[in-house]
């Protein structure tokens, strides 16, 4: 069972991003397998759509958000072994040339440890802030993946789609991992799950411990991914899964560790990203919590 943790990026942990390198080194030394960032370009004051696409509010814990690319770069320089992932970057918000350059740089700094995860997001205001249309975000995601494929595997590189255009350009600097870093895709809705099956190298689901942990639901979602993969002529077993585990305030480390074990036993998922954003206030607490969860989850 592989266990990773979110870097100090949001809420009060974001006040200590100067300790990102320390956090990354210490948690790696404690036995973690991966380190992760999320993506929140802004949290609207009066959101049209609420957190996760539900309601009309966004948790205050997401108001402060550090840059995911900077944090991954710092963690890449501070560590030797752990994978470095995003769960998830809102890929359609970024021009593909800039997104590809940023991720290529992180992959090379880390000697090929990048695990890029992408999603389409749920906030109309984030799209308004970039000048992109919210309702085309699914199509832009598809084209972003195509454009990254071209940028990462060809030189010169170019791409022409309905929504995106990348002019022919010299592209000799490639990621370490060949032919390209894997595409991990966040998905909960049926169209998004089918996209994972058609073209994802990995799936990034979500749960909350203990308030929203539906193992049967995860198994059912994975079945849809597998079905879509078979329909596309792909081997479902080639699609990895990393489950994001958000920890509720007041939850014990023992409860988190037991949840990881239960999910692993009943679903086969063997890689987890634990986010203590809501559960602990500062980097010291995040470090001690991570070390204790690793110890308890691998005990027995």
UniProtKB/TrEMBL annotation:
UniProt-listed InterPro entries:
Lucif-like_OxRdtase_Rv2161c (IPR019921), Luciferase-like_dom (IPR011251), Luciferase-like_sf (IPR036661), SsuD_RutA_monooxygenase (IPR050172)
Give the top-rank taxon of the lineage listed in the UniProt record for this protein. Answer: Bacteria
Instruction: Please provide the Gene Ontology terms (biological process) for this protein.
Output: alkanesulfonate catabolic process
Gene3D superfamilies listed in its UniProt record: Luciferase-like domain
Protein name (record): Probable F420-dependent oxidoreductase, Rv2161c family
Identify the keywords attached in UniProt to this record, alphabetized: Flavoprotein, FMN, Monooxygenase, Oxidoreductase
Q: Which residues are in the Luciferase-like domain? A: 2-263
- UniProt-recorded Gene Ontology molecular function terms: alkanesulfonate monooxygenase activity
Q: Where are the annotated coiled coils located?
A: none
């Amino acid at each position: 069972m592989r266990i990773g943790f979110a870097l100090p990026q949001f809420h009060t942990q974001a006040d200590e991003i100067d300790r990102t390198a320390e956090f990354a080194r210490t948690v790696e030394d404690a036995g973690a397998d991966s380190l992760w960032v999320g993506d929140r370009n802004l949290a609207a004051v009066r959101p049209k759509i609420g957190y996760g696409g539900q309601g009309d509010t966004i948790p205050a814990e997401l108001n402060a958000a550090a840059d995911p690319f900077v944090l991954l770069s710092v963690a890449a320089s501070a560590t030797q072994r752990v994978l470095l992932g995003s769960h998830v970057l809102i890929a359609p918000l970024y021009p593909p040339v800039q997104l590809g350059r940023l991720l290529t740089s992180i992959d090379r700094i880390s000697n090929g440890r990048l695990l890029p995860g992408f999603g389409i997001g749920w906030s109309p205001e984030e799209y308004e802030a970039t000048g992109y249309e919210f309702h085309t975000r699914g199509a832009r995601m598809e084209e972003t993946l195509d454009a990254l494929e071209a940028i990462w595997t060809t030189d010169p590189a170019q791409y022409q789609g309905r929504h995106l255009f990348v002019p022919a350009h010299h592209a000799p600097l490639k990621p370490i991992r060949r032919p390209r870093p894997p595409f991990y895709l966040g998905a909960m809705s049926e169209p998004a799950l089918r996209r994972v099956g058609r073209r994802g190298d990995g799936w990034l689901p979500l749960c909350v411990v203990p308030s929203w942990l539906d193992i049967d639901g995860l198994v059912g979602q994975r079945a849809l991914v597998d079905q879509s993969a078979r329909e596309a002529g792909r081997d479902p077993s080639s699609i990895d899964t990393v489950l994001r585990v958000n920890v509720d305030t007041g939850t014990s480390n023992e409860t988190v560790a037991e949840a990881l074990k239960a999910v692993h036993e009943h679903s086969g998922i063997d890689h987890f990203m634990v986010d203590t954003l809501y559960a602990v206030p500062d980097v010291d607490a995040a470090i001690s919590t991570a070390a204790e969860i690793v110890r308890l989850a691998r005990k027995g």
